[in-house]
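Example 3.
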Amino acid sequence: MESLTNTIQSVPLNHYILLSTIIFSIGVTGVLIRRNAIVIFMSVELMLNAVNLLLTAFSVYRGDASGQVFVFFIMALAAAEVAVGLAIIVMIYRNTNSVDINVLNRLKW
Amino acid sequence: MNTLIIISVLPIVLLYLGLYKATKSLLPVTIIGLLAALGFAIAQWNNVALPIYHGMMMFDNFSIAFSGITIITTILILMLSGGYFEKISKHTAEYYAIILFSLAGIIVMVSFYNLVMLFIGIEIMSVSLYILAGIKKNDFSSNEAALKYFLMGAFSTGFLLFGITLLYGTTGSFGLEAIRDWVIAHPHIDPMFYTGIGLIIVGLCFKVGAAPFHFWTPDVYEGSPTLITAFMSTVVKTAGFAAFLRLFSACFAPLSDFWVPILLGITIVTLFIGNITALYQQSFKRMLAFSSISHAGYLLFAIVALGSGSANSVFVYATAYSIASIIAFGSLILVQQQNGSDNFESFNGLAKNNPFLAFVLTVAMLSLAGIPLTAGFMGKFFMFSGALAKYHVWLVIIAVVNAIIAIFYYFRVIIAMYFRSADRAEVLVPAYYKIVFGFSALVTILIGIYPDFIARFI
């Protein structure tokens, strides 16, 4: 554990912040430009995992475990969201035979 | 605390009742359980509030008041559900259970004392609502509403989490108290902290449906089953603002120079977009969705003009808005059942056959528009006087202009009911509906005439 902490700390904190921001931005871009509901969903997961990475890095640098505990909470709730989200996508697929969000135009966007 | 435990256990009891096919007892058990939860909440009123569970939550008067109003609103909405869920499917117990799970998340949201609990509360509430929006499995607009709500909700959660993470990175804690102490101890603030506040504002504005993050609101509100729309636009909105206010008044009040201009811009844009778009709507339900956006703008006043009276203004405004919206959505359900349409035309000539229904709907519309002697006027009065105390004179002028625009579209339905004639049969109003409508209209008028008993509540 000690060596792991040292390994993580051998990379400056700014690099972690930069990496997470880049991954987060990729996720945001994905949500905004992709048209397939499942790909959008994956992009959202990418955003959440960027947050997890950053939380872990902060937690190691501060020597405070609460950040890592929060990561577990995020994972658990993301799993709950996946369960509900995939069910909704399956429901849409049954009715329209498509997961493209362009078919979602019955209500004005 | 007992409130939260009861509201978390009650849905499991309901699921068992559903398993043993005791469908008749679902509604009474739910209402008795919620009344018990309400009783436990009120019993703690004015007790010395200390953070519990290692500083995770705190049940102070603020959270008791908002738990109270959300529980009462939920009871009123559930009373409208008699016979509503049965039309959708045979498994009605699940719907009651999911609404209550969502309410449990809301109780967590209004009493959080740590950013972790804020996140968990919002997620418990949202995940339940994604399901509720899509309960009409074969109805295409309900499916679409569920997917849109889900994608936008998950997206906004990402922003909220990134903001929380940046706050944690600078302050080293998730606790509200620790963050506030850090803000006070460090006059020169890290840019990362400001970015965090900005991202949290984005995340929370998505959740409460404030412009420019409102675009999902009309579609989701229109597509969801009407009863669920009523729940989303009253209880969920109240809880969102309670959480917003609690976070900002507890942590970020010393930094108001940074975030007040941002929120001021959001407020003005929200007011104009909500009101002007509502003018063009042909559907009553979609009009109510846009009007809920404009009410989000008025509720943001309390946060822009953050002060000791903010909590009370949000409380009065949210109460007035919730009870008036319940009447509006309840009458929409009845008219929709008769006509199959939710356009303004379907309200034509309602006053002739259903004077009671037309009267309570008129009271609700007057309250939403903010006409004196109704609760809505008192809500707007508290909001505006709070903003004037902070010298946001232009904001109040813009808001008054918007209130005048709003009168136009709220009066359209009153005109349709009283002055347009149409051949129609009498709308059957079940007894439960009569109780809810009568109670809500009475409370609306009482608060409008005697605002004293609610004015110094929190």
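Chain B has one domain: 2-455. Residues 140-171 of chain B form the longest helix (32 residues).
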